Amino acid sequence: MTSSAVRSRRVEPAPKRQLDLLPSAPASPAGLVPLEHRGRGTEFLAVPVRSVLNTPAATHMPFWSLNPYVGCEFGCTYCYARDTHRYLVERMGGEIETLPAWQAFEQRIIVKPDAAGVLARTLEPAKLGATPLVIGTATDPYQPAERRFRLTRQILEALVAYRGIRIGLITKSPLVTRDIDVLRHLSERNEVSVNISLATIDRRLARRLELRSPVPEVRIRALARLTRAGIHAGLLIAPIIPCVTDGRAALDSLFRAAKEAGAHYVVGAALRLGPAARHRFLPHLAREFPDLLERYEQHYAGRTSANRSYQEALTRRLSALRRKYGLTDGRFRPLAEPDESPDAQGQLFNRY
Q1: 350 inside domain
Q2: CATH number of the structural domain spanning residue 182
Q3: Is residue 333 part of a domain?
């Protein structure tokens, strides 16, 4: 599809939902306005935005991206996006109070209340061309905050005004099925793919990795609901955690569940460990999987992604499982690219 083939029409955006501020709550030093505070310690803060789209040039990924929130209540121990909270607050000239970056990411959720309106005013489909626009690359767009603020639904409603855009969603939450009506309408005008993210089908193992995320069977049921409704949806196995969730039997069970749910595709990506993710994941690894700690410290020393030899072996395994179950590799590439740095520890994880 060429940029000249992309046509758009605008409609009046859906009314923006008013967000109630806490009584007499002053703006924070970083310009963030408190919206709500929950008993378990999670705080929601609003930030004004002039732009909501991230270009491929800025993210070094082969797609445009949009995140309605900064931070994520699910707080998965392995999350690679934990630094995004710190980056935003630093750009605003503020500090993240007394919390370390990894903790602020899951307890100080930054809300973009005018995201849909900004998108409607600034989106130029011709600039996207055939490049996908992916929602939820650095936060879950259907985390619990979405029940309250409904930003993701507003964004999808705004996108209905356009034609010929390739749109992707990434989520762990069954809340995405709330928006089947909008997704079906959106799919009539655009190419839409919903990626249900799941690292393991084993409930006990999932709880050891991501305590607050929806359990695996709920996510698989959400995938089935989407496909039965005619939505193009598949399974995103992410992250694939070396020596924990990458075994043949474990991956086979995920592919089998995806096939039974009517998935159109399965894609996978190996674990990434940036600085903030290390501070959260490595201590957790030491408690839950102590025998792996030294191997991880060596393998990820000086790198954020698994080495090339591991990723190539993983790609072969995933390809074999796709052939077995008659599934494709989807429309969007995995979020992690092979690490190009010298690999002194290349065989640490290679059990293939």
Answers
A1: no
A2: 3.20.20.70
A3: no
Give ∠ CA 53-180-170 in degrees, rounded to 5. Answer: 40
Q: DSSP letters along 22-33, please?
A: PTTPPPPTTSPE
Number of structural domains found in the chain:
1
Whether 345 maps to a domain, the answer reads no
Q: For every one of its 352 residues, what pLDDT tens digit does the chain have, with 9 covering 90 and above?
A: 443 443 444 444 444 444 444 333 434 535 778 888 876 778 999 998 899 999 999 888 899 999 999 999 998 999 887 777 666 666 666 554 557 766 788 888 999 999 999 999 999 999 999 999 999 999 999 999 999 999 999 999 999 999 999 999 999 999 999 999 999 999 999 999 999 999 999 999 999 999 899 999 999 999 999 999 999 999 999 999 999 999 999 999 999 999 999 999 999 999 999 887 888 899 999 999 999 999 999 999 989 999 999 999 999 999 999 999 999 998 544 344 333 333 333 344 543 3
Assigned domain for 102 exists:
yes
SS3 229: coil
Do residues 141 and 169 touch, judged by C-beta distance below 8 A? yes
Q: What does 85-134 look like in DSSP terms, one character per residue?
A: HHHHHHHTT---TTS-HHHHHHHEEEE-TTHHHHHHHH--HHHHTTS-EE
Range of 64's domain? 28-325
User: Exposed, middle or buried, 60 (CB in 10 Å: 0-12/13-18/19+)?
Assistant: exposed
Q: How would you classify the pairing of strands 166-171 and 191-197?
A: parallel
